Amino acid sequence: MTVHEKFLALGTHYGKVYLLDVQGNITQKVDISPVKINQISLDESGEHMGICSEDGKVQVFGLYSGEEFHETFDCPIKIVAVHPQFVRSHCKQFVTGGKKLLLYEKTWMNRWKPSVLHEGEGNIRNVKWRGHLIAWANNMGVKILDMISKQRITNVPRDDISLRPDMYPCSLCWKDNLTLIIGWGTSVKICSVKERHASEMRDLPSRYVEIIFQFDTEFYISGLAPLCDQLVVLSYVKEVSEKTEMEYCARPRLDIIQPLPESCEEISSDALTVRGFQENECRDYHLEHSEGESLFYIISPRDIVVAKERDQDDHIDWLLEKKKYEEALMAAEISQKTIKKHRILDIGLAYINHLVEKGEYDLAARKCQKILGKNTELWEFEVYKFKEIGQLKAISRYLPRRDPILKPLIYEMVLHEFLESDYEGFAMLIKEWPGDLYNNAIIVQVVVDHLKKDPQNRTLLRTLAELYTYDQRYGKALEIYLTLRHKDVFQLIHKHNLFSSIRDKIVLLMDFDSEKAVDMLLDNEDKISIDRVVEELENRPELQHVYLHKLFKRDHHKGQRYHEKQISLYAEYDRPNLLPFLRDSTHCPLEKALEICQQRNFVEETVYLLSRMGNSRSALKMIMEELYDVDKAIEFAKEQDDGELWEDLILYSIDKPPFITGLLNNIGTHVDPILLIHRIKEGMEIPNLRDSLVKILQDYNLQILLREGCKKILVADSLSLLKKMHRTQMKGVRVDEENICESCLSPILPSDASKSFSVTVFHCRHMFHKECLPVPSTMSPLQFCNICSAKHRGPGSAILEMKK
């Protein structure tokens, strides 16, 4: 059998030749001989065919022309090969092989001239013609002939001479015009024809052959063909039976091998099932290939198997057959530009169905996002399919929410499913899904119906509030949030400006979160007035106090009309802040405050109010009698800085040794300690008296040191300033025509510069004509500035006299 890219030519054991199309349909039948057809050869154009048979017949003829050659030899002809360019007039050549290799050439007289190319080494077993090179195999090895020089350029000997060449024939195949692949027995050699350098020519052929790859296989080679940089090898396999330990013929194998310099790597291997393989020998299998379409034909006595290079569609088919849908989908996405048979969407849908059948509903739903994309019809179909199997919940999380948007009925169907069985899931979907995906009014009504059965269900109430918010019914949403004490109530009020709706709900807001409520109310005084808030909180004084206290902290004057009320509120609910309030408030009625503090016996607050109202002696008396706290009494006396208070404090403390100790320790810087010491009765035992006296002396010494230090600093500063003033006054003073006499108010300098004049300038920078100044007395010869003396700014003595 031989292969052309347009058709196949098949010879039989009964001497017939069939022409078949690439699908295997018979298109033509030719009777050649009554015996076996040994070989068929075609030129590259597919217009001429050469045939040889076991009875010695050779025919070369045109399939579409009347050109024909017939010859019968006296021995079987095993091979025939026509020139690849036989269609051309100058290439009318072909070779035949039996016991010798003959070349037939057409002469100018249209006669065929034979010539012997080789003989004497047994039968010619195989021949392949490519370009200007002919390769053939006989019992001794493989030869290559250069048709240009008509010289044999190489001889590649057979490796294993123990194998019968008729049982294990040689396989030849040209990869290109210069590369020959040889397979014989278990050996593979790849030979490259190269040009010889001119300096090496001498009597040698212009070309030579180099074996670039050589390796052995595990099985016998029945045929081979190139596949890019790899080899397709048809192998004849013999195996040993485990039971009988005898060899038997196994199925032939088609292997893809990657040649390496001294070995090979098996890429893939497939065992072929052909009829009668148990009786076949190595010579019964042949491998032919079509270069144009990468098709490979395995010929056995009873079958022809067509193999082609597996493409991505084949790979996807295999993955789908093995139910490896995810890998098939990935392969289709990677090769989406080259696959022809499959669609990514179809594979994806099959994957989803497979996952559903396995019960992996969540994974199937998740894959819908990627596979269905923006196809709304497929989305809706899948949702209904999930509904039929009761798995709407699984797909709910992955439904599209934007681009595309499905029909509202789809989302409502999912929500209804959750509402019937999972309130929390329903609430989560309402929170996550935009409100425009479904008919809000329908969902609201369904939720209301469920609340009739379970009116206290917080999840449903919270969800209903969110639905009301989507529907812009903020008042109803606010009521629910306040009932639930939901944290989003303040955000809802701010976001939608619901202050008009909360005027009568202030108590509820304060009960929920007084801090946030007060901050919100104070931040929006223009929308809810202070008076309105105080009025609403009238029956809840503790909340009223929280609001007014925060208001007072922000601004001491805004709530001044409520300061009197706040006195009672502080006294009742927040005494620690009462005294700071009394100190900071300028609008608080002191009499009312004093009355309340006295009623409640608030000593510190009463002391402060008495002192603020000018009754310091009563305040001091209360400190000493009620609090019995000498330190606080001393501190109070220091604050007031009143001698009478110190006198009262001494009189009260004179018979109380602890008080005397406290006074001795603190009185030294405000009152002369001698006044206290003289009044101490003799024989009175005073705790820590010695330490107190030592402290008084130390304080006195410290005061002396401070005074002396201050005096030194004052003298040094005075001297420094005096020197500075002296330097300043000793500087020259500019006198020009713009200056005037401070007495006569005329220009200080005469208009006629030639006239004589006399001017006096004082340190105060006032200027006078000499004659305008009074004559100094004999008692005080110094002159003084009349202006400065009159203003009591200190006399200025003359510093400069100018005469001319």
UniProtKB/TrEMBL annotation:
Determine if Cytoplasm is one of this entry's keywords: yes
Topology in membrane: Peripheral membrane protein
Compartments in which it is found: Cytoplasm, Cytosol; Early endosome membrane; Endosome membrane; Late endosome membrane
Q: Which SMART domains does this one have?
A: CLH (SM00299)
Bilayer-crossing residues are: none
**GO molecular function term, any single one:** zinc ion binding
Q: Which CDD domains match?
A: RING-H2_Vps41 (cd16690)
- Report which superkingdom the organism of origin falls in: Eukaryota
Record InterPro entries:
Beta-prop_Vps41, Clathrin_H-chain/VPS_repeat, TPR-like_helical_dom_sf, Vps41, Vps41/Vps8, WD40/YVTN_repeat-like_dom_sf, WD40_repeat_dom_sf, Znf_RING
Pfam families given in the database record: Beta-prop_Vps41 (PF23411), TPR_Vps41 (PF23556), zf-RING_Vps41 (PF23555)
Q: Which GO terms describe its cellular component?
A: clathrin-coated vesicle; cytosol; early endosome membrane; Golgi apparatus; HOPS complex; late endosome membrane; lysosomal membrane
Q: Where is the RING-type domain?
A: 741-789
For biological process, the GO terms are: cellular response to starvation; endosomal vesicle fusion; macroautophagy; protein targeting to vacuole
Task: Note the Gene3D superfamilies from the entry.
Answer: Tetratricopeptide repeat domain, YVTN repeat-like/Quinoprotein amine dehydrogenase
Q: Which UniProt keywords apply?
A: Autophagy, Cytoplasm, Cytoplasmic vesicle, Endosome, Golgi apparatus, Lysosome, Membrane, Metal-binding, Protein transport, Transport, Zinc, Zinc-finger
- Is-annotated flag, keyword Zinc? yes
Which residue intervals correspond to the CHCR repeats? 518-662
> What is this protein's function?
Plays a role in vesicle-mediated protein trafficking to lysosomal compartments including the endocytic membrane transport pathways.
The UniProt entry's sequence similarity note says: Belongs to the VPS41 family.
State what protein this is by name.
Vacuolar protein sorting-associated protein 41 homolog
Q: Which organism is it from?
A: Terrapene triunguis (Three-toed box turtle)
**Taxonomic lineage from the root:** Eukaryota, Metazoa, Chordata, Craniata, Vertebrata
